[in-house]
Amino acid sequence: MTRYFLFAPALMLAACQSVSVPEAPTRADLASELVRRAPEDGPPPKPDGACWANDTAPAVIETVTEQVEVSPAVIGPDGTVITPATYRSSTHQRILTDRESVWFRTPCPDELTVDFIATVQRALKARGFYMLPLTGQMDAATGDAIRRFQQPLGMDSAVLSLAAARALGIVAADFGRD
User: Phi and psi of 43, rounded to 5°?
Assistant: First the structure.
């Protein structure tokens, strides 16, 4: 009984403490997997035995529409507007990021079996990115679905990245990665 009285204050004090629970990431960030290198430089040297794909990230262009004053308002001596100002719309584009060559890890060719690709198609279909029957072929429809899955996660490519395969749950995580 005396033990209860010894632990009771400690338990009550512990109950008053707030516990901070780390938040799980809400979505994968595939852009962190991109390595910017010229295609002629070849893939990055590490990790050993990794397979890499090269693709071109498209330029990001912003279209801006502004109202430009053509003629100012004419104001009378008593402060009333005699003629209002006139404006025209001016639209122009500017490049936010240039087109660039990027490298990223991808499943190795010997892993890209008919069963593996069918699993990719199944995972994309479950998420609403692939609507056709499963074929096990890396065709244009599969590439389009891969691009639609990867694009909002920061990788605009029709080539399946290893990080996207992990995010789909079809490749085991690589905890020993360099």
Answer: -70, 160
125: pLDDT confidence band, cut at 50, 70 and 90? Answer: very high
Give the model confidence (pLDDT) of 97-109 as tens digits.
888 888 899 999 9
3-state SS of 145-163?
Answer: HHHHHHHHHCCCCCCCCHH
The mean pLDDT value for 141-170 works out to 92
What is the side-by-side strand order in the sheet with 52-57?
35-36, 100-105, 52-57
- Dig out the tokens for 2 from the structure: 């005396």
CA distance 120 to 166: 11
**What would the DSSP string read from start to end of the chain?**
-HHHHHHHHHHHHHHTS----PPPPSS--GGGG-EE--GGG-S---STT--EEEEEEPPEEEEEEEEEEEEPPEE-TTS-EEE--EEEEEEEEEEEE--EEEEEE---GGG--HHHHHHHHHHHHHTTS--SPP-----HHHHHHHHHHHGGGT---SSPPHHHHHHTTSS---TT--
Judge whether 118 and 134 are in contact, CB under 8 Å: yes
